[in-house]
Fold these 2 entries.
Entry 1:
Amino acid sequence: MTVDTKLETPVDTQTMEQAVLEPATLRLPAVIPPVPFPIETLVPDSRQQTPAVGQRATRSDGRLHGLGQTKYIDDIVLPGMLYARIKRAGVASARIVRVDTSAAEAMPGVMAVLTGREIPVNSFGPSFQDQPVLADERVFHAGDGVAAVAAVTEQIAIEALEKIKVEYEPLPAVFDPVEAMKESAPKVHPPNSNIYATKVVKRGDLDRGFAESAHVFERQFRTQMVEHVPLEPHATLAEWDANGRVTLWTTLGRITLGRTDIARTLKMPVNRIRVVGTIVGGNFGGKNEITQEPVLALLSKKTGRPVKGVFSRREEFISSTTRHPFVMDYKTGVDKEGKIIARKVRLVLDGGAYCSWSETTLGKACILAPGPYNIDNVHVEAFVVYTNKTMTGAMRGFGAPQVCFAYESHMDDIAAALGIDPLEIRLRNVFDEGSISPTGQVLHSVVVRDSLLTAAERFGWREGRP
Amino acid sequence: MKRRGRGIACMWYPIGFTVAANPSAATVKVNEDGTATLLTGTVETGQGALTVLGQIAAEALGISTEDVHVVSGDTDTTPMDTGAIASRTTYVTGNAVRLAAEEACKILFDVAGPMLGVRPDQLEMRDRKIQVKNFPQRSLPLGEVAYHAQAVKGRPAIGSATWNPPTVPMDPETGQGKPFNTYVYATQIAEVDVDDETGEVEVIRIAAAHDCGTAINPMLVEGQIEGGIAMGIGLALQEEILFDSQGRQINPNLTNYIMPTSLDMPAIEVDIVDSYDPTGPFGAKGVGEPTSVPTAAAILNAIHDAVGVRITSLPATAEKVLAAIKAGPGREMKQLTAA
């Protein structure tokens, strides 16, 4: 606390009371004003009712959010804590020739620098371990981390990143997923093929289905890459203790499996790692795998101090996972009444530089691609390919919003061509209780028809245009 | 001028992982006053999952949401959980919580049986009491039984359980199998205005009818639907990460990456479709991800209805819509002659 000299002036010229009232006289650090707690906390009725299921119970964390008392990682400060920042490659495909950290290490306030070569097992990933924690030999996309700094302030850490010199030897790159499928395309992870996973769902006789169709329609659909944009970016606070245990407070949505990945990269027994999942300010699939956790753990080990890292908004975009862009080819055969007889779908997913949750996205997209419709003859083939772009991973819907855009646009095309109302054509085709899915599964608790009728009723679909 | 259109889209979406095991474990401790503590390894990511899990534990114990305190997200103290992913928390973790609470109930029924002069299997939990089924006059406060169990019988009421959805692996050649134990369904209908001179699209309202099995907490279901629609609007009309020719992002900031704000939100009319899944906790399935699945499709169909152009690549930015209007309707549409 700093006290203005005015306060020290004699009482006879200015009373203490006056001095305190004058706003400029006291310069206190910015602190949250104290919240007076009522002796009894008001508990809404909805939380006290039985039976509990079906109640519109307020959230247990709602009161803290409302009063601004929720502690996110950015609010947590431990004694002696350092701030970490990660240097991003800025080139999409290159061999790392040399990393010179000497100038950064010499800076006052810089406590440690870390490169990929210091990470015990420098790879991770939920399906394939194809992603380095920090790139060491090769850069696969422009958002790759190449070195990290821990410093006494965030500003010093940012300045230190500028002093780290990385020498790159450019390598050929590929950015378009359809291009990347060609034999001649540069390999993102040589010697492996860029097509790193495929999936097929096949039922019935497609050729016979198309032959029996009265009309056949074909169209290609594409979707873009988007970010989750959570309000709270990826954030972690790591503290290595003298017993060789590390505690990580982190925004991970999956702490059990995150701990497994951290243990693997650090080459440590699982029971020496404690992961605490703090209240997360939005996940949407983007916080389902580790990012900077091993880096911060090792920086904490090196410095003997707690180390915090919070992604900038820019890092959130360029270095965390995003939604898969899709290229989708649909071909559908229908009878005169608009009943779907056959459907062929080909999906190409842009997987970006690493697999991440692509296998899951591929599987769900492939299974869901025909839509919630009874189709006797179906063939879906799906591919996910590496490109030298930001990696794509889990995001709310795992490929379903992309294929839904395609199959529902296609459905309206067919309805328009045949002069059938869009609601009506769906009611003629949708699943019912006991319908067989494209993978041959007998479906239960199927209410897609009810949802169509309920939404149409609420919207006033059958009353015509407003 | 502004032209109004409407578009419909329905969808299906699975709950849990594709074939792969995705178990959850849970521990329920009934305290000596009849309140309870639930331990879960999942994490609150803003969706209200912990409140829903607390409600499930409360339902199984016949107590209220407020009576259950939920401890979560610490690998040292809470049991394993596959986590907040794949719309699985209510369904998978919820089933583990229900089973754990039932384990705790068994201890309490064993203790209460002799106290009430009936067999343990004749008892049920309701309104903070343990009572004889179909004879509620004979009952004991839950707190009294819980205290008796701990302090007299030496059997504190603690239950632990795990659950994992049963699946059948898919054939690698044909994909035939049972990749998920259950699915949810939904329909959204969008009404839009499209300015045919600028290509700008404004979403006026969306009617959303979602299936989530039993709605454990209808207010949180509505919250998920509204949030999902916001994301769906961004996917449909605005959001896109752009790259330069060297593979570097051009717009990695919220100035140039345009996404919907509260001012872009339409009126949303929510219906929760009547549904009950016998495999879920008290009939519940899930609702997190599916809420943003049909939104873009419904909006793009509404654009087609309004101005007669089929936008085949997302997002349908004003520039793209205007270019399509100028090019004329139905240009990319391909109808093949039937074989």
Entry 2:
Amino acid sequence: MQTNRALRNHWKTAVLALTLATSASAWADQLSDIKAKGELVCGVLGTDEPFSFIMNPATREIVGYDVDLCKAVAADLGVKPVVKQLANTARIPELQQGRIDLLAASLTHSKEREALINFSLSTFITGQKVMVKADSGIDQLDQLAGKKILTIKGTTMEQAVRSKLPTAQIVSFDTNPQALLALQQGKGMAYANDETSLAGNFAKLADAAKDYRILPQNLSTEHLALGLRKGEPAFQEQVNKTLRDLESSGEAQKLFTKWFGPDSNMKFASRSFKIETDNIN
Amino acid sequence: MLDIIQTYGLYYLIGQYPNGPLGGLLMTLILAASALVLAFPVGVLLALCRISPFAILRVPVTGIVYVLRGTPLLMVIFWAYFLLPTLTGQRTDQFGTMLAALVIFDGVYLAEIIRAGILGLPRGQMESSRSLGFSYLSSMLLVILPQAFRNMLPSLVNQFVSTIKETSLGYIISLSEVSFVASQISAQLPTKPLQIYALLGLTYFVMCFSLSRFAYWLEKHLAVRSAKV
Amino acid sequence: MNTFDLSIVLSGQYHEWLVSGFLLSIQLALITLVIALPLAIILAVLRLAPYAPLRGISITYVEAIRNVPLLAHMLFWYFGAPELLPPPIKSWIYQHNIEAVSAVIALVLYTAAYMAEDIRSGLRAIPKEQMEAGRTLGFGFISTMRLVILPQSLRVTVPPLISQTLNLWKNTSIAMVIGVGEMMYQAQQVESATFRGFESFAVTTAGYISVSIVITLLSSWYQQRYPVRSA
């Protein structure tokens, strides 16, 4: 095993050298970096109505709740917001590697992820639920044991399903609409996602929505937040300040109404949370 | 299908441009073309190492070629995704990642095409050029490579077809090339996957089939010309 | 960044994920090979058939399949094509492992198109006179093919077929886009569960390369054992 350890040490040195090489370029404070380059790059999903999605095929612009939060942070900094579309699985690596400044990508604040990145105040609180076909005869989570459940790669849903329903068979897709499509086509018994995203899917289903049902029980409660790189206290404070200001000025409520309220596709009656804490328990 | 094209046609062709980044079919073509152009010098370099008389160049490069040929492109893309920023210290976006992966991957395949092109020439070419006083390198650059290039043109066009097909894997890292855009459109129209993916297949077919026909024509044409000479 | 530590992927749950992915990749490749090879032979023989419509079918198939990327095939055969089936059949296959089935369909069609071309070149390497001689002796087209041409072309054809098998092995990775739990899918799953991309990808890369090396060695062994005899 001697060689093995030597090899591992070798790797450690290599990785250390690489880490030093990369961190050198990120020495400067991110906040002043962003101000200097005059733009704030936000990573979004672009496939998750109403957080970030393409609403109008004519303009092909990505809009949504997450996008508006990004714009608010950029406006406070006096820089231009740049929205960049990311794959679910790429969200955290993209942030860590500095290709984006801020994650506004339907991101759940989880204990596991705290080891890798920092989170802003929670910007949305929702439950993870499952959607089934109305004629499937399923009305309890337990009935899904051993069944095929559709979800999305690189998300907290996968972990939630795995812990609530250990015998279920999980099939994960790259985007939320693909998982919905697979449910529609009957390729799985249930589809797990944040309640908000499920509501977005319901809206998309339009007339067909009556054939689907969301089970009342939560798989888990999700605190969504903006994601930031570790070790950037000034930028984090700036982001949180923007969020607090949004809350105190009533702007946060307006954003909620715009994307989730009774006149939106989501049709949520009221807001059950405030943007005030990053406590997820 | 016509109504899909009417509503989403522009998105399909150019992505979010000008209200966002360029994408769609145009992105596919730009990516494939730049990958091939950048991969060519890499391929020449690798090919020269592969046929080099010096083992110190030949052996490691042959090793690299074998390893890369045994690895799926998808794996190369993932490595590029994780390693590039660490190695270069640059912030590479999805386009840069995909481009780098394609350049490395295609470089290896081009190297084999170029090697075959060089080895296909009579040995006398190099010998006479050397005896005229040219060095190995200048004989290679001035005499051998230009002739080999002509012989391998059809293979290069075919490699371009492969590269176009390879760009579709950008889908997996959310690079908004045409396959990704198609899946985005399918997300907007959840009842029409058949039409959308059929349209996607047709798009690739039209591009790649016409190119491979062109390669075939080129092959015939060049064969006739060299027969005359 | 964490230090490089392979132990996390060399034992325990994540190790099991990767091993199950490796085994599934192998299964995908083997099942595809078993179905694609006969299909490719049929296509190649059709291509040389004495009737134009049969040749047309073969040419159309090969060109239509080869000029579309495998990723588009996967998406089409998983999300698109099954929708055309009548509802009872559709719901029956959806109850089963539709992800793997669609992946195998896409892989078979794609691989067969390439293999058919290799087999065709092999058949064309056999002088025309052989076919003519066989026909003169009273054998039909099919029997001459089966008894005279195919056996002779084997030596020329096997090496490119082995290299198509190598491509097939690498291509199984694309099945990840339709949720098939093969090795690449599992590598990404492990990466997103543990955030240890380097370790997960290193082990997976080793998995791909080791099988690729076996296939390459097989090819060189064959070429040494059964060299092409020049006429």
